[in-house]
Automatic annotation (TrEMBL):
Domain of life, source organism: Bacteria
Entry protein name: Peptidoglycan-binding domain-containing protein
Organism of this sequence: Mesorhizobium dulcispinae
Database matches in SUPFAM superfamilies: PGBD-like
InterPro entries in the record: Peptidoglycan-bd-like (IPR002477), PGBD-like_sf (IPR036365), PGBDSf (IPR036366)
Domain Peptidoglycan binding-like residue range list: 48-102
Pfam families (UniProt xref): PG_binding_1
Length: 107
């Protein structure tokens, strides 16, 4: 299991880093409003969401502007990314393994 962020994109932002670290540890997830809080609480907007949206944009998974709001379109793009990486479940929620894959891509 990954224990720290390695890419400058995720690790160098002092405001987003604490939130993203919680995602990497599995104590927080990123997802759309209405996502079940099990197995971890869900954050649906803010800088951490923006950072994930920016990474997905840079990989070419979306051409939609980043809004810092985890909407259904973001969930669909996350699901696509997870399928590409063979991550299960391929839902639209960013958990520890999804963030680790995004971080790896940003190195």
């Amino acid at each position: 299991m990954p224990t720290h962020l390695k890419s400058a994109h995720f690790a160098s932002d002092p405001e987003a880093f604490p939130i993203l670290s919680k995602v990497l540890l599995g104590t927080l997830r990123l997802g759309p409003v209405g996502t079940s809080a099990f197995p971890a609480p869900v954050l649906s907007e803010g800088l951490a969401v923006f950072k994930v949206q920016t990474a997905l944009f840079q990989f070419g998974f979306t051409d939609t502007p980043q809004s810092a709001v985890f909407d259904q379109q973001t969930a669909a793009v996350v699901s696509q990314f997870k399928s590409f990486w063979h991550l299960s479940p391929s839902d639209g929620v960013v958990g520890q393994f999804t963030l680790a894959a995004l971080d790896y891509e940003m190195i």
